[in-house]
Protein 1
Amino acid sequence: MSSIRILPDRVANQIAAGEVIERPAAVVKELVENSLDAGATRIEVEFRNGGRAYIRVEDNGTGMGRDDALLSLERHATSKIAEAADLDRLATFGFRGEALPSIASVARFEMQTRSAGDDAGTEVLVNGGKFVHVRDCGRPVGTRLVVANLFNSVPARRKFLKSDATESAHIIHCVRLYALACPQAAFTLIEDGRAIFRSPECTTTAERVAEIFGRQISESLLVMEAAEAGLRLDGLIGRPGVGRATRHEMITFVNRRPVDSRTLSYALIESYHDALPKGRYPLAFLFLDIDPAAVDVNVHPAKREVRFRNEVQIRAFVIRSVLDRLRESAALAGPESALAGNPAAPTGSIAPPAREGAPGPAESRLAAPFPVYRPPVRFEQPVAPASPGAPPSFAPAPGEQKKPRINWRFVGLAHGVYALFETDAGLVLLDRRAAHERVWYERLRRQFLSGQVGSQRLLLPVPVELDAITTALLLDRLAFLQGHGFEISEFGRNFFRVEGVPEWMDPADAESFLRDLLGALREGLLMAKDLDLARDELARLASTRAVRMPDGTSPEEMDALVTQLFACQQPLTNPGGRPTFIELSHGELARRFQK
Ligand code: ADP
Ligand code: MG
């Protein structure tokens, strides 16, 4: 019988490293956070080979004495919180005391550090979790950490790393984020001996953005600032009409911590609904400041995600503030502004509440050119079919859109495919598969549009070998597919590996669907420059795959299918344009039966 054991620290650290240190950029993140927590005003980051060979982070922060330096490598050793309640008022990036021991357990880890009170610095060397030495060293006050041969001792982990170029992109992104979060510190980033950026201390975020992203970007941005009880939002947002093809440049911070927040990105996307063409994403560097007790940062091992206690309030605040700012800029730009041409369609819309205080003349003028906020059309909202031609009798009439319930009574299923319904008007034969395809198609389009395409990792990556032409086509569309739930990496000449597929897909279909996709690429599909078009095509292809028809056909299931179908924008056809059902009216039946 096996007995329970406490894991040796080294093993525990390596396990923790698996969660916290997923890639070289995560090391950089942890070390830079520590430097900032230590009050550094100068931080230098250098790395080689995408960070796997060498990462150095050096700061002029408080540094540590010898005892602390040794203690910092113990699991759960932290100087930042003392009790659980401290988690509710976190003012530092770190708090778990996991990073240093985790990193030291999977790399060659060298720390040199000196605190202001000490004459000599301390050098500690740990290799793959094994202590090597501690000794005095000379160095200025502050800390220098060198992490080399990352994951050498954990080959399984190393295999998951992507190309140097990809890992390096992650590191650069990460350092930019912290440089943005803390403009008052000087940052230098060096890759393979070449400076990516050097930014002196800055007084504003705008200056910092110009330093690290370039003047051109900074000129396309608007400075914004808004406050409300307990909430503050400031930063830079793209001028109306300035958008991006991906959501990667919506950069958000909560209490100066870079985070991915659905709440914030959705709010941004919605705010720009009328200020950007379809399929474009806002460009934004937004900082939300909020009472630390109203936000939980302890929901993700790498603390990348946050959860707000009051999502609704935050979302409304962000939308209102961003809209206000956009509206203001539109007014200043006059009628030639990008927004002026947009039709204002205030039907049943939620107008942003007026600002406090009496509107000045400028503000009352701007109400006209700026379109009133209108929530994006949801596919769930049944809309009358857009196609010309006489809509069938049961098409939801505009007035009764809320409950377009069709009085269809399920009679039975023929050939596993055709569902027969008795209706007030006669009979209906529904092609079950076509109906499912329509429902899936619109569901996927909706997901694609919101950018929320979940991906599932394959247990066993699927290798695919292609010819030169298909390789070129695939490479061309790789980013697009990756943005839609596929994880495909190049693995040598004409050789790829599918490592993840979209959530909706049966993993067993991975290879055959990829082959379908490649076939489609060869036919010129999915190559449209217009992102929306390409997405439609992808959704159309995917909808045929996504359908998994349930075996059972209870009347409830059939009812549900019909309800979902009629919640679609276009219930009459499948994504390929074939009818989803055929109607036989009483009159038609009477005629056929020569009654
Ligand atoms: P955490 O940041 O969660 O406290 P870490 O493992 O990242 O845990 O660091 C452990 C401790 O080591 C920190 O609490 C801090 O006291 C000390 N430390 C780490 N890096 C630095 C640094 N660059 N300068 C000064 N002290 C540091
Ligand atoms: Mg830390």
Protein 2
Amino acid sequence: MKTIVTDIGMLATPQGKGPRKGPEQGNIQILKDAWVLMEDGVIAQVGAGPAPAADEVIDAHGALVTPGLVDAHTHLIFGGWRQNELGLKLHGKTYLEIQNAGGGIQSTTNATRAATEEELTQKAAKALDEMLHFGVTTMEAKSGYGLATQHELKALRVIQNLNDRHPMDIVATFMGAHLVPAEYKADRGAYIRLVCEEMMPKVKEQGIARFCDVFCEADTFTVEESRQVLEAGLKYGLRPKIHADEIEAIGGSQLAGEIGAISAEHLIVCPPEGIASMARGGVVACLLPATSFYLGATFAPARDMINAGVPVAMASDFNPGSCPCLNLQFVINLGCLKYKLTPEEVLTAVTLNAACAIDMADKAGSLEPGKQGDLVIWDAPDLDYICYRMGSNLSKTVIKKGVVVVG
Ligand code: NIG
Ligand code: FE
């Protein structure tokens, strides 16, 4: 079955299967009057000018077409919400103060433990539908609100089931080390042993996660504890990711480089030595500007990272606490306005580099022969337009593996 998208006013895509860093981050392919030919869901040819014949023709009516967006960092699986924390924030309580008082991740953990697999599935499916409408076709989802073996496995099973039955491609990350839960507060070591010696073997046995993540942060997991968790993950075939330098720079980004993490997340207060370590270790910086916005924090030094040769990806961080937002188009706006990245650099950050951050660049993140036919036809004439407009959903038609799934 051949499907062609024709009359593309502007086709904008990064190219390749590896992360784009330094000046290459902004070096993308732009074609005018273009077309994309797909065969059985896979891109067969991309070109400009007269279009070849196909069984099905989708007319882009002169609009912008990009690869389907890739959201490389979400905490998709959680029970409840935390709107009660808004008032606390407005009265000056900080994120860590709320967490230390038993709110934050612990309160979502209580709600997640109380939820059935079916309830979690239905709730997450609703979020997935919404993300697909915003133009996201591939994403990562973490566990981390179970914090007990049965509930961490429950969350990962939900992700696996959704990946099987929803058009979205979802890759799973095990994040048992998101917080030491209340019942282990007096014995942190015992919780870390539980994560490494009980949860991880089961995760591996069931084959339900590809990555291991840890919240390396003040009052959460120290650098040494984080190293212990990520090294244990490696033994079980889980590639390391790390929440680093979100609130305090305690050494997480340095660890990311040392351990060869596939990506480091947040990096809001990343110091120069952290950037250098990530550059040496070939780590993708996965930046989450909507979280900075929501926490009222500063913004990660994205330009310094690009200058140092660290590939920059951007993601939503969708979660019920620090970022109850799954709109990657808002992240695109923030990438330009707050990181001062160019539209070309931003596009790479939410497509190819994001795909690299979750080891999906062989299938997703760019429009070129051999990759999946995942693309977005925008209600926009060009790339600048989607970076400049704000607050509307400009994604018009979403195509996943050659099939129209939205629009
Ligand atoms: O990425 N920082 C740790 N995890 C999430 C927040 C989790 C929560 O507040 O529920 C984040 O910001
Ligand atoms: Fe996160």
